[in-house]
Amino acid sequence: MPEVRWERLTAPEINEWAARDAVVMLPVAALEQHGPHLPVWTDSLIGHAACIRAAELVAEDAPTLVLPPMWQGISEHHLPFGGTISLDFRTMQAVIACVARSIRACGFRKLFLSNSHGGNIEPLQVIARELGAEMGMPVVAATVHQAAAAAIAGILETQSATQHACEAETSLWLALDPDQVRRDKVEGALSNGGPSVGGSAFQRFWSFAERAPGTGVRGDPRAATAEKGERILDAIAEALARGLRDPALWATPDDVWTPGRAQRPAAQ
């Protein structure tokens, strides 16, 4: 199995991957509270592990290098609980643009923003579209739990989708690094409930102190197992691998606008 982790390679080795027209995956995550029982590294751990497993799955037919995780996300809604570091949108956009320019300078022309944090979903969709148009290269964004939503729903017992510090995320920790789970805190980790706002047509800023009062947890971590975590990680990796193998996602944008152009082409 070839080494797919960027930070473990030498510069000449990375240049060889660029010559193969490899995709560069940037796991975009967060450093934020995950209740009393999970470390603040949760999204970064999950996102990085999923990208590595996906890159290994496609090593023979869709060469992919995985960058170290971008642990700063948009997490201001978790600040009331402590332990959280957050970026604003403009800073996040600027950092990812710097990554995109850097990989282009290294000879790469494909960037996959693989997201593992709910607060990054809409920002990354905008960033991917704008960067792809500006730089004239495919920039794809996907959220790992959404990419494998159907498979994850079939694995979980107490919830229909990944929530926060929940059955799914606790299972993933148990599979990846079980010693980091504060098992004595799991029983008391359930929050006092709160509104579910993700599917609403009306949006505002919602603090997690409103959505998960008391503990900052949404979902039931008591049902977590390492076996579920392995199955979820496999499902996410397989979903990401399908995206990496999809030629439609990696075509160069055919309507590219750059600041040097006087105006966009007229719509057909």
Automatic annotation (TrEMBL):
The protein, known as: Creatininase family protein
Family assignment from sequence similarity: Belongs to the creatininase superfamily.
Keyword terms: Hydrolase, Metal-binding, Zinc
Recorded superkingdom: Bacteria
Cofactors demanded by this protein: Zn(2+)
Keyword flag Hydrolase: yes
SUPFAM superfamilies to which the protein is assigned, alphabetical: Creatininase
UniProt KW Transit peptide keyword: no
Any coiled-coil regions, as ranges: none
